[in-house]
Amino acid sequence: MFQQLDAPAKDPILSLTVAYREDAREDKLDLGIGVYRDSQGHTPVMQAVRSAALTLADQQDSKGYVGLAGNERFNDLMSQFLLAGTSALARSATIQTPGASGALRMLGELIAYAKPNATVWISRPSYVNHQPVMEACGLEVREYPYFDPDTKLVNEAAMLESLRQLGPDDVLLLHGCCHNPTGADISMATWQAIADLAEQQGFVPFVDLAYQGFGDNLDADAAGLRLLAERLPEVLVAVSCSKNFGLYRERTGAAIVIGATQADALRGKGHMQRIARATYTMPPDHGAAIVAMILENDALKQQWLDELQAMQARIQRLRQQLVAEFRSASDSHRFDYFAEHRGMFSVTGLSAEQTQQLSAEQGVYVVGGGRVNVAGLSEDRIGKLVSAFLAVGA
Ligand code: LMR
């Protein structure tokens, strides 16, 4: 059965982790997969998470099954947290998923069931997993213009112009904040314009919110989503707790359906539960139980907010330091865009050849297209990144 199989394509992000691990050079630098590292180069367990996990270990008295929608307390807390202050909260329904990738898949399958001919529009470029997941659901995927390689910012005019062709059979996938891979986000005026277009043309926005709290702050990072949720009858949301709770390997996320009525949203939830049953049955509990405990305990929640805010502030400082070191080493301002971007990543526009040279000759690993994980840097390695970039002609 397996003899005639072709070689599978390698995942562009996860394969880098393997290549980095196999590199014997001591001063190598991994700026591939999106994980936050502290100044010692370590991805820490957040203190609030550690405390909640210890309490959980002490108090949990059963490992019995939870249910197809996962932890319903987590689901309620997540939707309240995200949709606070919007009328959409009362017409939403949520399932817990294995990470946001699981949420993307469940929501993609729901779209395919509700509207088999739907086209999902993704930004050019977008998160490397968006297209594979949507295509695995049997959906057609098309791209809208997004990133301007010259300014390293979003070409919002071109984006909005392209969205004018979308109609009721289209789903528009947007990054809630901290666009992956580019780091370039749309303005509130553009969120507003998207809401206007969706109202007029009937397409459904689908917001992937994987980095809330890493951009400016928790509220600002959810402002675009909240605006759409308030104004539009239908919005889909994939949420990740991987980064802002540092729960990466626990695979903790949520899929939220906002419908014109609560009954519509609940029908969507019911179908996602049916689809989950045929996929993984129910999500792993541990991460969601930790998040729920943090969100409903004032002291733990404050500790988590402080830790998250400290990570966000440090990423911003790393960005400023990058700009300063690039300015002095290149005697130019051409790397100033690092400070304009938000969240973990920046796309630098390195060619495939330069990216290859960067790993082969300099031991610096970045994702194809030149995506750098700024949040994976430590202060004392910025010089290494700067000299490696200039050595490959960036
Ligand atoms: C990334 O883009 O590096 C992360 O979102 C990890 C992933 O799941 O691909």
TrEMBL record:
Protein name: Aromatic amino acid aminotransferase
A Gene Ontology term for the protein's cellular component: cytosol
Requisite cofactors: pyridoxal 5'-phosphate
Assembly and oligomerization: Homodimer.
InterPro entries on file: Aminotransferase_I/II_large (IPR004839), Asp_trans (IPR000796), PyrdxlP-dep_Trfase (IPR015424), PyrdxlP-dep_Trfase_major (IPR015421), PyrdxlP-dep_Trfase_small (IPR015422)
Stretch forming the signal peptide: none
Family, as annotated: Belongs to the class-I pyridoxal-phosphate-dependent aminotransferase family.
A molecular function (GO) term: pyridoxal phosphate binding
Coiled-coil region(s): 301-328
Keywords attached to this entry: Aminotransferase, Coiled coil, Pyridoxal phosphate, Transferase
Domain Aminotransferase class I/classII large intervals: 27-388
UniProt-listed GO biological process terms: L-phenylalanine biosynthetic process from chorismate via phenylpyruvate
UniProt superkingdom: Bacteria
